Amino acid sequence: MKMLKGVIRNLATLCTTGTPNRARSAGTKLLFSEETAEALLLSKARAFCNSTDLPKNEAEAINHENTFREAGKIRTSFDFTSYMLQKIKSVNQALDAAVPIREPIKFHEAMRYSLLSEGKRVCPLLCIAACELVGGQESTAMPAACGMEMIISMCLMHDDLPSMDNSDLRRGKLSHHKVFGENVTVLTGYSLVALAFEHMTAATKGVHPKTMVRAVGELARLIGPEGAVAGQVLDLLCGGKSDTGLEELEYIHRHKTADFIEAAAIVGAMLGGASEEEIDRLRKFSQCFGLMYQVVDDILDVTKSSEQLGKTGGKDSFDNKLTYPKMIGIDKSKEYAQKLSKEAKEQLVVFDTEKAAPLLAMADFALHRQK
């Protein structure tokens, strides 16, 4: 096993030779980080070692390492930018079709305002990528992916309300209530949640009814009073309290943010026909991914301007909210985010390397994002 680890490290280095170790913008071609290359190669290396005794002779070990080295040259990069742009385009088209302009026109314009605004579409992409990872099709996951974005939009709209986070900007535009008023924002949010479940169940094709019921139940649980809502409530209750510790902070982030990520991945996997083992691995992946995403969000809130973020920068600090930089500092927060990213990727080593590449690249993207 020690020899195997050395081989993997060498291959990971080979796959990333010449790749600058810096944050990547959304417009660049994302090459595998050394960590991602290692994760991609590990499953094939393990399969090899399970079928062939590890050689004790050092010369033989070098020969086997060269074999892996040649295999590593077959695919050393995944063009995540192209993948992301194509998927976002598909999701936006599906969202546009799901919420057409109809009577009452003003209200449907309000529904479309936040839903169709520019966004990273992280949850829809995760839903589709998880479905494809286990052998499903984009078309199968798309209604659920749209439903996830409808629920996310509702949460962002309500989060920005004066009674909640009281934020004026979202995704580079005026917050929903600043344009349509608080009363319409509340009603729009209700409508989007109802539409999310209606669209998911009515538009999904080729999925067994029992699987659909299970997926709907999973989504409802993770956004409900024991999931995302619980995180939001504790976030409001703990704001400004000096005696709140890391345990409470992690609870808030795991529920307020990570539960949405988990819902997207698990629902996508279920619709794609995942086994229980695959669901368990994707659950662990998404929980680490989701917490890492929020830790990075905390860091960006204190290091980026409102113009860079597309929302009100420094809002958490101004409101005296619990964040990782506030509790453990920026450097340790970055270390923790990197640790969570690594733990997330480790859950994917048993899957087909090409099908896992989008999720691995998404973890890199989320870790290095600048807004």
From TrEMBL:
Keywords: Isoprene biosynthesis, Magnesium, Metal-binding, Transferase. Pfam families: polyprenyl_synt. One of its GO terms (cellular component) is cytoplasm. SUPFAM superfamilies: Terpenoid synthases. One of its GO terms (biological process) is isoprenoid biosynthetic process. Gene3D superfamilies: Farnesyl Diphosphate Synthase. Pathway: Isoprenoid biosynthesis. Its cofactor is Mg(2+). Coiled coil: none annotated. It comes from the Eukaryota. GO terms for molecular function: geranylgeranyl diphosphate synthase activity; metal ion binding. PANTHER family: FARNESYL DIPHOSPHATE SYNTHASE, FARNESYLTRANSTRANSFERASE. Belongs to the FPP/GGPP synthase family. This is Geranylgeranyl pyrophosphate synthase, chloroplastic. The lineage of its organism: Eukaryota, Viridiplantae, Streptophyta, Embryophyta, Tracheophyta.
